[in-house]
Write a structure and sequence with these properties.
4-stranded mixed sheet, Dihydrodipicolinate Reductase, domain 2, binds zinc ion, 11 helices, 7-stranded mixed sheet, alpha+beta, 13 strands
Length: about 350
């Protein structure tokens, strides 16, 4: 993997250039970029240039070093945020009918294992459009007083369950053909989408926290060095005061003891200051919210345990040939289902409060 592919700042920039109608072509010595002339003028760059995130390549081959924090990246990020992009997208409807009952039943039994239960399809599927949210955000990570990074974060979240899509399903939906004409959504779908935003925020925040942990690992070494340095400085000072106190007369010893106490206070303040300097933070600024309506079929099922039947339904997403994930109907956890003798739940909620 080249540095261009791994540096998130450069990746963001290449993505932005693609979106603005430019051409990018990666090679061993950086990425060749051809910019539309309007964009080149706006960014004060030549129409054609080679960029890299590798300082050695930039040094040897004269490519432009473009990494996180470069003013060109910051301007692109600002442009993206200003044009904040909100809309409804409709994936083209499937040409044929729903898969037959056996296919739908085999697929749901394979995809959704139910402890002690068996899933039977009990009716004909009806046509639905399942709302999926595509959210983009720019995250600013501050890992120390002098160091910050900006990165793009994208997530795809099922608006009904609030569960994230698997990455390969998300990229298939991103590529799937869209329906012709303007897409509209009924108010109920807009409400569902709005209701899912709390899950979206949680998903983005978790991803940002993980990334922040990785970014601050390096700063953390500098942090530890600075703490160790301060501790050894104050230890030396305190030891020297102690040596002098041991041989001093009573009044001078009292003076030295007071100095030692104030040195200890000063040390605690200094350590706190250093901790504050390295307090990692992140800020999430969403710039895209698309409701993507994914055509599919709602399949009515019974989840059976012996003679007990629990009615349920799963949505078959036609462009992905898979079912949308559902939460536990009892506690709303995104956990595997379990059919008990008296109700349908998941392992977690039925273990904690047996029905
Ligand atoms: Zn549950």
């Amino acid at each position: 993997m080249t540095v261009a592919q791994t540096d998130p700042g450069l990746r963001f920039w290449l993505h932005y250039v693609d979106g603005c109608g430019g051409v990018t072509e990666s090679g061993a010595d950086g990425t060749l970029i051809m910019l539309p002339s309007l964009m080149a003028a706006e960014f004060e760059l030549p129409d054609e240039l080679v960029v890299t995130a590798d300082p050695d390549v930039a040094h040897e081959d004269g490519a432009v070093l473009l990494t996180t924090g470069h003013p060109v990246l910051t301007r692109a990020a600002d442009a993206v945020l200003t044009d904040g992009d909100v809309g409804i997208d409709m994936v083209a409807a499937p040409a044929g009918p729903a898969p037959d009952t056996d296919t739908l039943q085999d697929a749901i039994r394979e995809q959704v294992p139910v402890d002690h239960g068996r899933i039977d399809v009990v009716g004909l599927p009806t046509r639905v459009d399942r709302p999926i949210l595509r959210v983009g955000a720019l995250v600013t990570y501050t890992v120390s007083a002098e160091e910050y990074y900006q990165e793009r974060l994208e997530c795809w979240v099922d608006a009904i369950s609030g569960l994230p899509l698997r990455p390969d399903d998300a990229s298939r939906l991103a590529r799937a053909a869209r329906a012709d004409g303007p897409a509209t959504a009924p108010a109920s779908i807009v409400n569902t989408a709005t209701g899912a935003l709390v899950h979206v925020h949680h998903i983005l925040n978790t991803a940002a926290e993980q990334r922040r942990g990785m970014l601050s690992a390096q700063a953390s070494r500098a942090h530890q060095r600075e703490l160790a340095h301060a501790r050894s400085y104050y230890d030396d000072a305190l030891q020297s005061l102690e040596r002098r106190r041991a041989t001093a007369d009573a009044s001078r010893a009292a003076l030295l003891a007071a100095r030692a106490a104030s040195t200890q206070d000063e040390c605690a303040r200094r350590l706190l200051e250093i901790d504050e300097k390295y307090q990692a933070q992140h800020e999430i600024r969403p710039y895209r919210l698309h409701v993507v309506l994914v055509p599919g079929w709602r399949v009515p099922v019974d989840i059976r345990r012996g003679a007990r039947r629990y009615p349920f339904a799963f949505d078959w997403l036609a462009p992905l040939s898979t079912y949308a994930a559902e939460r536990c109907p009892r506690c709303h956890a995104g956990a595997p289902l379990l059919a008990s003798k008296t109700c349908l739940g998941c392992q977690a909620c039925l273990a904690s409060s047996p029905a």
